[in-house]
Automatic annotation (TrEMBL):
Domain (Peptidase S8/S53): residue spans on this chain: 11-223
The protein, known as: Subtilisin-like protein
Protein keywords: Hydrolase, Protease, Serine protease
InterPro entries the UniProt entry points to: PCSK9_ProteinaseK-like (IPR034193), Peptidase_S8/S53_dom (IPR000209), Peptidase_S8/S53_dom_sf (IPR036852), Peptidase_S8_His-AS (IPR022398), Peptidase_S8_Ser-AS (IPR023828), Peptidase_S8_subtilisin-like (IPR050131), Peptidase_S8_subtilisin-rel (IPR015500)
Location of the active site: 11 (charge relay system), 43 (charge relay system), 192 (charge relay system)
Protein source organism: Leptotrombidium deliense
GO cellular component terms, semicolon-separated: extracellular space
Signal peptide extent: none
Family: Belongs to the peptidase S8 family.
GO biological process: proteolysis
Protein origin, superkingdom: Eukaryota
Alphabetical list of CDD domains matching this protein: Peptidases_S8_PCSK9_ProteinaseK_like
Length: 226
């Protein structure tokens, strides 16, 4: 099956020429001032590879669209993140993967809500502070699909955020991922790694049935856990 569903990865950018993407990655938008579209930090490339990489990814034929909202230090301005969220809202129907977060912010949550309401499925990281995800954004957005991380024993990883705002727990410990610097592979842990795995599953399901709404897609993913 060929998956043509676009996956919008909002992060530090993506090294689109990494062999892991087989030419399926492209630049969508860059909201970071005074930086090129390229991934200068590596986090975005790593996460994108777990969504749709040929080796590390779940949806191995999906198209990656890089939306750069974080800088070379892995941080960013709220206005840039907000612009990136709203940009994806206006694109063709697909899957949005957001391995980023910060303190609770009503405006960020509202932007994610509007994006989901437009038809985009949005997977977001719960965070790595070992605290309640409801105190962070965008993880606390009610309509987002919030992802915590598990460990080797299939229980909550020690670092992962938790709580009623979490929708699912996904593998997030020492995950294989693409390395933007070396062009090879490495391993990392975090809810940033757990989130793209769920986004990849969502992409496969949406490719099978393009009429699925974000709410129906969320319910379908949870149903198949049991």
């Amino acid at each position: 099956m060929i998956f043509c569903i676009p996956l919008f990865s909002k992060d530090t950018g993506v090294r689109i020429n990494h062999t892991e993407f087989e030419g399926r990655a492209s630049f969508g938008a860059n909201f970071v001032e005074d930086e090129p579209e390229d991934d200068l930090q590596g986090h975005g490339t790593a996460c994108a590879s777990m969504v749709a990489g040929k080796r590390a990814g779940v949806a191995k034929k999906a198209n990656i669209v890089a939306v750069k909202v974080l800088n070379k230090d892995g941080s960013g301005m709220i206005s840039d993140v907000l612009a990136g969220i709203l940009w994806t809202r206006d694109q063709e129907k697909g899957i949005v993967s957001m391995s980023l977060g910060g303190p609770y912010n009503f405006i960020i949550n509202l932007a994610v809500y509007l994006t989901v309401n437009s038809g985009q499925f949005v997977a977001v990281a719960a965070g790595n502070e070992n605290s309640d995800a409801c105190g962070t954004s965008p993880a606390s957005t009610a309509t987002a699909f919030t992802v915590a991380a598990s460990n080797y024993t299939n229980t909550l990883a020690w670092f992962s955020n938790y709580g009623r705002c979490v929708d699912i727990i996904s593998p997030g410990t020492k995950c294989l991922l693409a390395n933007a610097t070396t062009g090879d592979f490495s391993r990392a842990s975090g809810t940033s790694m757990a989130t793209p795995l769920v986004a990849g599953v969502a992409a496969i399901k949406l490719a099978e049935n393009a009429t699925l709404t974000p709410a129906t897609l969320s319910a379908l993913i949870l149903k198949h856990l049991y």
